[in-house]
Amino acid sequence: MKQKQQKEREYLFCKNSKKAAMLGMFTAVAMICSYIEAMIPVNFGIPGIKLGLANLVVLLVLYMMGTKDALIVSVLRIILTGFLFGNLFGILYSLAGGLLSFLVMWILKRTGKLRIISVSVAGGISHNTGQLLVAALVVENYKIMYYIPVLLIAGFLTGLLIGILSQEIVLRLQKFMKNSSV
Amino acid sequence: MHKRFGKNDAVFLGILLGLCLLVFLGYRVFLRTKGSRIVITKNGEVYGTYSLEKEQTIEIKDKDGTVTNTLIIKDQKADMESADCPDRLCVKQKAISHENENIVCLPNKVVVTVVDGDASDFDAIAQ
Predict the structure, then answer these.
(1) Are residues B43 and B21 in the same domain?
(2) Which residue in B126, B110, B92 sits closest to B43, CA to CA?
């Protein structure tokens, strides 16, 4: 009996530490993604349009580990990269976009009717919308909404790309994740 | 059911794309008229109004007098020439000339917006 309990405890401990390691790794990958993204010198003429590579990692965690884990990775990534490379304002905008897109993606995933690609597109669009809303509030100028059409299209396209990518990665990584029993 | 793409996705994405294009085209068709003046706001307050007809360089100053942004008006277009913030996104932005187009400098809370040409109408209402 005692031995059984001991084994159970060991199993749980092993599982938890595996999960912690996985989450740490995913957070690190997400941070690297946003760093790489900041280094790509692409300029679309309008600030705020970017690929959203970090969202790729959030999607992966959302689909392979769980909602809570994905939220943790998303928020941690924003706060850590914000402190490392940005400023407090940057964190505010990122959080607005990140949380709104997370909420939308989570709800859409929960319906169980849509594939990753749709979830990702909706996330991209809501991310841009959230950021623009906060920007409008901060500068107290609602004319900034002029950019919403361009940002909607951009969110759609980048969301599509990220969606296709993460779908492929999830399909390939799922086997590995099952084997390592996280 | 296909692993990657289903009927639901096609419908969902189609509707979303349609909505995006609708908004995009709507903005393009109905809201794109040439403006004649620009309004600069700083911290949400109006800093000044300038005509796009006259070529000029505008220095946007802080309360303590330091120049945070420089705006250039040339060929009836306004373009941010320099900014003292680290990312300088507003400088990278294209020149603006159409009504409601704007350049935003978030760190300095500066917004430059193109407004309608009918100055007389505006004044008449304001008075």
Answers:
(1) no
(2) B110
Rg (CA), chain A: 18
ipTM: 0.72
Instruction: Find the mean pLDDT for residues B72-88.
Output: 86
Q: Three-state SS for B89? A: helix
The terminus-to-terminus CA distance of chain A in angstroms comes to 26
Number of domains making up chain B: 2
For the stretch A75-119, pLDDT in tens is 999 999 888 887 787 788 889 889 999 999 999 999 988 899 999
Q: Could you tell me if B74 and B55 are in contact, meaning their C-beta atoms sit under 8 angstroms apart?
A: yes
Per-residue burial over B60-72, b if 16 or more Cβ lie within 10 Å, else e, is beeeeeeebbbbe
**B47 and B2 share one domain:** no
Q: Which residues of B touch A (CB under 8 A)?
A: 3-6, 8-9, 12-13, 16-17, 19-21, 23-24, 26-28, 31, 41, 43-44, 86, 89-90, 92-94, 100-102, 104, 106-107, 109, 111, 113
Please give the CATH number for the structural domain made up of A2-179.
1.10.1760.20
Give yes or no: residues B46 and B79 share one domain: yes
Q: Residues of A at the B interface (Cβ-Cβ below 8 Å)?
A: 43, 45-47, 87, 89, 93, 113-115, 117-118, 121-122, 125, 135, 138-141, 143-144, 146, 148-150, 152-153, 156, 160, 167, 171
Domain of B2, in residue numbers: 1-31
